[in-house]
Amino acid sequence: MRIEIRHLRALLAVADCLHFRRAAEQLNVAQPALSRTIAQLEDAVGETLFRRNNRQVELTEPGRVLVEESQQVLSQLEQAVTKTQRAGRGEIGRLAIGYTDFAISGKLPAILDDFRHQHPDLHFDLAFGSTAQQLEALLQKRLDFGFITGPNLTPGLASRPIQRDRFIAAVSESHPLAQRDSICLQELAHEPFILGSRDMWFHFRKRVDDICAKAGFVPQVAQETFNSETVFAFVACNFGVTVHLECARNYVRKGVRMVPLSDVDESLVTEVAWRKEEISPAQQTFLDHLEQRS
């Protein structure tokens, strides 16, 4: 016979009362029904759980062991039910979140820190990736959210803006332009450029090409790298200059000077993207948090 939860609850009630009638009243069942339930449990385990006589009921040693184990089983079941209900309300779980250099240099750290304090039982699995990599991971359900370079035009994915950054120039502190309050982009036309690789920074590189074309030149790329840290390292060495975003001011690199571009009005938007369908409770909690911050 299969042991059911009702058998364990009956066992604990009788063990607590050491009296079948009072235990039956506690469980709101008839005493004969309770006696049958205990008998079924004893048959299932093959041991006598209670010693009975006309005056008292006592637990046997096998009964005492089963009582202790049953208490743990029911406690674990109660915890499981509670966790399941909290998961249904989006209070616990994990979120896989992708990010670009620009997101992690901008508002994303504050967003995650604020969310973590408000929802301590929702945890993050963070992964760096290019916009293209994140969009693919979202469609393949390997990411819940991607903080990408906008605009997102991918079918099946929704998005909303998170931050908007103006373009700036970054030069070595020893560069002749470093002491200027601002410069025109065209002044960098004959400078060697340090830029993120086109495969990893495709969306950003396209925007840089566009603003340089408007300024009348094509950037002379001397070195490609895969992240902002390496870009600024080469700039600090005076290997070249770069065009980046103003969120890079949050990234402090000794030897680099950020200079505003006086003739560039364009900006780049970082968006958070997610799948439109099948939004989980945890995902909805994160979306609600983003809505509250907007």
UniProtKB/TrEMBL annotation:
UniProt keyword annotations, A-Z: DNA-binding, Transcription, Transcription regulation
Keyword DNA-binding: yes
SUPFAM superfamilies with a match to the protein in the record: Periplasmic binding protein-like II, Winged helix' DNA-binding domain
GO terms for MF: DNA binding; DNA-binding transcription factor activity
Pfam families found in the cross-reference section: HTH_1, LysR_substrate
Keyword DNA-binding belongs to the record: yes
Domain HTH lysR-type: 3-60
InterPro entries referenced in this protein's UniProt entry, alphabetically: LysR_HTH_N (IPR000847), LysR_subst-bd (IPR005119), WH-like_DNA-bd_sf (IPR036388), WH_DNA-bd_sf (IPR036390)
GO CC annotation: protein-DNA complex
Domain of life: Bacteria
Family named by the database record: Belongs to the LysR transcriptional regulatory family.
PROSITE patterns: HTH_LYSR
The protein's name: LysR family transcriptional regulator
Source organism of the structure: Halomonas binhaiensis
